[in-house]
Every structure is written in structure tokens, then in C-alpha cells.
Amino acid sequence: xxxxxxxxxxxxxxxxxxxxxxxxxxxxxxxxxxxxxxxxxxxxxxxxxxxxxxxxxxxxxxxxxxxxxxxxxxxxxxxxxxxxxxxxxxxxxxxxxxxxxxxxxxxxxxxxxxxxxxxxxxxxxxxxxxxxxxxxxxxxxxxxxxxxxxxxxxxxxxxxxxxxxxxxxxxxxxxxxxxxxxxxxxxxxxxxxxxxxxxxxxxxxxxxxxxxxxxxxxxxxxxxxxxxxxxxxxxxxxxx
Length: 240
What we know:
The protein is an alpha/beta fold and 240 residues long. The protein has helices at residues 11-19, 109-121, 127-139, 145-160, 195-198, 210-213, 222-229, 233-237, and strands spanning 2-3, 22-23, 28-29, 31-35, 40-42, 49-54, 57-62, 65-67, 93-97, 101-103, 164-168.
């Protein structure tokens, strides 16, 4: 399976990480997913934004980014490889490799994100259990978007109970020429998302503001699931 990197990715992203994981009473066999590390940065995607459910509706939380300095290679020690430039035929593409995109901390977006999460989830069942750890991920100020995203994905995997080996790609393969389960450019906030229904997880969970919203709101960050369902999130993600 092939996925893009993502910032506090949506529930469907986590369900894909868990899809091939074997979970039983006596053992857990992890899944194995490749994360695209050789593409050019894609704007207006889950790579630098996520969506939460607030009292006034869906709210986007965005990470401001900037290009690396000339001659500088801001690689994470966790990326396991050297960055490779590639051209992706997608509208809204940056000419820089995804691993070379820096997070811009010149504005107080971290504080604004923390306040937004407090406002949206302070009454949810499990928010207080995870709040400090989520805030710590942001306050650590990872230098690159790749590092930040990887930390959020691993956090969500750990807290939801997903066992998955993540491997960065070593070369870029254009869409349609790689594996059949390639979700790099189909899992997008502006595109229809049928992933959950395709794998038999087209269902709901409790959301704090669902009555105000007139029902369940899909395509939220997995933070929404975690804050509302806590340790039971894995039961939802694995259809148990």
C-alpha cells in the first residue's frame, strides 16, 4: 500500500494503515505501508492540513510551510533516505521534494491550533487524556513538514493501537504505474472519499456536536475519533 504523508490524517487514512493488520486475542501481525517520500509537495492537501469538528462546524487546521534555504537539505533523521526531486502531474504542485519543505513558525499557529482543539474537544470523553501529548508534538517544533507529519501519524497509531511498519519510498513512481492500492492522490480533502465504505467501515461514532450538526460529520481528523472514542478507536478502525 502507498500513501502520502499527512498531518493528523483523517480516519480513512488510519483505517488504511490498519487494514492489513491481523488482530486476535493471542497475537498481532503488523501491516506494512509505504509513505511517499520522493514526490513534490502537493498544496491544499492533507499533507499540511487536517479537519476537526467544532461547535460552529468543520474547522480546518493548517500548518504554514516555507521552502528550504538555497543549498540546504533539511532532512529528518527519521526519513531514512536522501530526498529525491520528482515531477508529479498534479495541479497545485510545488517544485520542491516533500522532505525539503520546512514548517514556518513565524506566526503563532501552534497556539491557535491548541486553542481550537480546546474549544472543540474540551467536553469530549477522552480529550484530557491525550491533550498534553498532542500539544507536546506541536511545541517540539519539528523543522520539516515530513518530521511533523510522521510524529502525528505515529502518535495516532500508538494511541489507537494500530501496529504498522512505515517505510519511506526510495523512488517516485507515477500514479497508475505503481501498486493497485495507491492512495497518494485519491485521498484528498477536495475529492470524494469512498475508502471507508470500500473496506466495510462506512459507519458512525459519537461526536460532541453531532446533534447541532444534524448528524454525523465524516472526513474528520483521526483526532476526532480518538478524543471521542479513546482506546475503543481500534475497534472502530478494524470493524471488530
